[in-house]
Design a protein that fits this description.
The protein has 356 residues and is α+β, with helices and mostly antiparallel strands. It has 8 helices and 20 strands. A hairpin with a 4-residue loop joins strand 4 (48-49) and strand 5 (54-55). The longest helix has 19 residues, at 59-77. It is globular and about 65 Å long. The mean pLDDT is 96. Bound molecules: flavin-adenine dinucleotide (FAD). Residues 7-13, 30-38, 40-45, 163-164, 189-193, 196, 210, 212, 243-244, 283, 285-286, 310, 312-318 line the site of flavin-adenine dinucleotide.
Length: 356
């Protein structure tokens, strides 16, 4: 009997699988390509919410865990996917400059905010009120990470490329059986695909569609990620990502003309250089009504071998290692989860007819 079946190969599934590997647990990952949030993500990590100058939830703790976590994964797979990337917020007024310094003086913010504003030296960037630089930022190349992670699993015969058949799962008191696989526990990490999961789709996962453009602007020569009306993120070689949009109605991963026009309009507010749009991608962020992850054990005692790792919203890169670590400690050591991310906060939503 193996320890885990993991459903999903996005940031959630991979972070759990890597944590399981580092804990010498045996597992199989099953995944299809029905969701792709992790693959279209820019993979940027940044502890601040730059729109409002607030701290992202548990950002400091998450960074402290995530950096050594990704480093170990890179070493194990002999691949580099964690790249340093400077991130700066274009300040729009003297008032915003003042807000930057007011925030910087608050406890815990000094670690992440530069105490000196940057002057703009790029003639193609509009930033007359200078820029505030965030510290401890970077970018995970999520496609490279996922490809090398899955390739390694395929070589070890730990990866099954298929859509999980929920009807084929047999749930026993102390283990689960899926087709010919017997495991102690199953971890569902399907991103927005949770909507198809009969045991966890009672949870209030909203899903927020996001689209990015890729542009080619060889003259721009900007090395920092810039946040203004939207993000401009350098990928190297004259290529940049521009985005992302936030839409709550459309739950498809299809790109739209509306998003393309919205992003071009926003980009032109702070960039004056000519550019060519070379690609456009879309995905659904697994967002939750209370903006906290969905982690934990199924509330029904008959389903206690079923676990969830989801709800990473727009910050999967930093939340992933932290939430995966918390989940494995819950399973293996019965250590309670942080109540803010524990799905037990929604136990009352589990339909009463299924509780019998
Ligand atoms: C446009 C955009 C930009 C973003 N930018 C950033 C960013 O810069 N930084 C950041 O930290 N976060 C970013 N995010 C958020 C981040 O992408 C998500 O938080 C994260 O990817 C969620 O990971 P996940 O594994 O939960 O979901 P997903 O990446 O969607 O993965 C779910 C996996 O489960 C599989 N699956 C689903 N159902 C089944 C099934 N029934 N059977 C088998 N497999 C199944 C899917 O095919 C997929 O492989 C962005 C998101 C979007 C959409």
């Amino acid at each position: 009997m193996i320890d885990y079946v993991i459903v999903g190969s996005g940031l959630a599934g991979i972070c759990f699988a890597e944590t399981a590997t580092q804990n010498e647990k045996r597992f199989v990952m099953i995944s299809d390509h029905s969701q792709n949030a992790s693959l279209v993500a820019a993979g940027m990590y940044n502890p601040l919410v730059l729109k409002r100058f607030t701290m992202a939830w548990q950002a400091g703790k998450q960074l402290d865990l995530a950096m050594p976590f990704y480093q170990r994964m890179q070493e194990r797979l002999s691949v580099q996917f964690n790249h340093k990337l400077r991130v700066a917020r274009i300040l729009s007024s003297v008032e915003e400059q003042n807000n930057w310094f007011v925030t910087l003086d608050k406890p815990a913010f000094g670690r992440f905010m530069s105490s000196q504003l940057l002057s703009n030296n790029n003639t193609f960037v509009k930033a007359p009120h200078q820029l505030g630089e965030v510290k401890e930022t970077g970018r995970i190349d999520t496609v490279k990470m996922r490809d090398s992670f899955v390739k390694d699993l395929i070589e070890k015969q730990q990866f099954i490329s298929e859509s999980f058949d929920y009807n084929a799962l047999e749930i026993k008191a102390d283990h689960i059986v899926y087709k010919e696989i017997k495991a102690k526990n199953i971890i569902f990490a399907e991103g927005y695909g949770l909507k198809q999961n009969p045991w966890f789709n009672y949870l209030p996962l909203v899903g927020t569609k996001g689209e990015y453009l890729s542009i080619y602007a060889p003259e721009l020569k900007e090395e920092k990620a810039l946040k203004s009306a939207c993000f401009l993120i350098p990928l190297g070689g004259g290529y940049y990502k521009v985005g992302a949009t936030y839409k709550w109605q459309d739950k498809t991963s299809k790109t739209t003309l509306e998003a393309r026009e919205e992003l071009i309009k926003k980009l032109k507010k702070f960039i004056t250089v000519d550019f060519e749009v070379v690609d456009q991608v879309a995905g659904i962020r697994p967002t939750v009504t209370d903006r906290r992850p969905l982690v934990g054990r199924h509330p029904d005692s008959k389903l206690k071998r079923l676990f969830l790792l989801n709800g990473f919203g727009s910050r999967g890169v930093l939340i992933g290692p932290y939430a995966a670590q918390a989940l494995i400690t819950l399973i293996e050591e019965e250590e309670p989860l942080d109540v803010e991310m524990d799905i037990s906060r929604f136990s009352a939503h589990w339909p009463s007819d299924q509780k019998k």
